[in-house]
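REQUEST ID: PR-0412
SUBMITTED BY: lab tech R.K.
PRIORITY: routine
TASK: structure prediction, single protein chain
INPUT:
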Amino acid sequence: MSAKVYLSLGSNLGDRSGNLLAAWEKVGEFCGGRRLSRVFETEPMHVTDQPRFLNAVGEARTSLTPLDLLDALLGVEASLGRDRQAETRMGPRPIDLDILLYDGVVLESPRLTIPHPRMGERRFVLQPLLELAPGLVDPRTGRAWAERLPGLAGQGVYSYPSR
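STATUS: complete
OUTPUT:
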């Protein structure tokens, strides 16, 4: 049985658009039924002295468990040049892949928290997520994710022309 998952994709180093597309293609090796939101250009959060990000959200189906999916995504990141050991936390990176939602599962483990713990604070996550699935609800609270979007104005999210 396959689970419906939502993944965030981000890049702010190198060929940002190419990095997103390459990552999404590699995700296709272990996820099917894939759809990708529009790409958005966003201001960095937390560490602001770095290039703007390109961000998108993908919807897919997978038979992998949440932790196996995490390991597969970390493998994609590494294959595209991300070195988590050498980088600054929240700093520039060629690719960043996160599990946002996994089939309504709520999971808290030392390696992985689902839903992603900061997704409700990030317009660059919620806007493309809601483009794909406007009726999604937070499995922890039962509240619609769309209720959070109006309070996230001013985070520098711009539509980006895809190539």
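NOTES: The CA atoms of residues 123 and 153 lie 7 Å apart.
REVIEWED BY: pending
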